[in-house]
Design goal:
Layout (H helix, E strand, L loop, with lengths): L6 E3 L1 H14 L2 E5 L4 E6 L2 E7 L4 E3 L4 E3 L4 E8 L2 E8 L2 E9 L3 E2 L4 E2 H8 L4 H27 L4 E6 L4 H5 L14 E3 L9 H11 L2 E5 L1 H14 L9
Parallel strand pairs: 7-12, 12-13
Antiparallel strand pairs: 1-14, 2-3, 3-4, 4-14, 5-6, 7-8, 8-9, 10-11
Length: 234
């Protein structure tokens, strides 16, 4: 599973980039909500690097997490999944579905309620399904939180759905501002076991995006020092 526009790089290439940053006196900034490094010169970004989720950023280097517990949740209208990994092993995987989309318009019930109200029986059924949907998701997430010392939560959800998720009758075991909550950098086509396994592999690698100016600073330098500067075939 790939992050759009980003290239997968290896640890030695990451080390070369850090050396280059130090050598040229560039600015390096860490974004905790994305677990991402951004590199600047004169307020202009040169590179963005997603860091492996199974490592902590210490301020100037990465430290591998010895006992890594990762929980993922991805939600869109009427479909969602949760997954729990311990040191790379997918131990739990659950798919959730709900009758939330109006068949004729293909519009989610949440968007419909903003303009048409809740008077019709079909609307009330879909609203009840929506509430059940989010409560069941959060029930699973709370189970993870009770049973495992979660290191990081990976989260993908449209902000339109945030109030229904975070303000559900049974809320999730984390807030939208929690330090160990990280936005997932890609979208899932389906909530299959195989796709979750691929996503874990992707999340535990480095991913690099260079600006046009960043190509001048790092592109040729990386290729010259490592001929394997290519995407991995997932």
């Amino acid at each position: 599973m790939k992050i759009p526009n980003y290239k997968t790089i290896q640890f030695d290439q990451w080390s070369l980039i850090l050396s280059r940053v130090s050598e040229l006196g560039l600015i390096l900034e860490y974004l905790p909500n994305k677990h991402q490094i951004e590199i600047f010169q004169n307020h202009e970004w040169l590179a963005k690097i997603f860091l492996p989720w199974d490592s902590f950023w210490t301020g100037n280097s990465l430290k591998k997490i010895d006992d890594f517990h990762l929980a993922l949740v991805a939600i869109k209208a009427g479909q969602a999944f949760t997954g729990y990994f311990h040191n790379g092993l997918l131990s739990d995987h659950k798919v959730f579905r709900a009758y939330m989309v109006r068949q004729k318009q293909g519009k989610s019930q949440i968007k419909h309620l903003k303009t048409k109200g809740k008077s019709r029986a079909g609307s009330r059924i879909r609203l009840a399904e929506t509430q059940r949907f989010f409560n069941e998701i959060n029930e699973r997430l709370n189970l993870y939180n009770e049973q495992y010392p979660i290191t990081r939560w990976g989260f993908s959800c449209s902000k339109t759905l945030w109030p229904y998720f975070f303000d559900a009758e049974l809320p999730p075991p984390f807030s939208s501002r929690q330090d160990n909550l990280i936005s997932l950098p890609f979208h899932y086509q389906q909530a299959s076991f195989e796709e979750l396994q691929k996503s874990y592999s992707s999340l535990t690698h480095f991913h690099l995006l260079l600006s046009d100016k960043g190509e001048e600073f790092f592109g040729e330098f990386l290729e010259r020092n490592d001929e394997s500067f290519e995407d991995e075939d997932w």
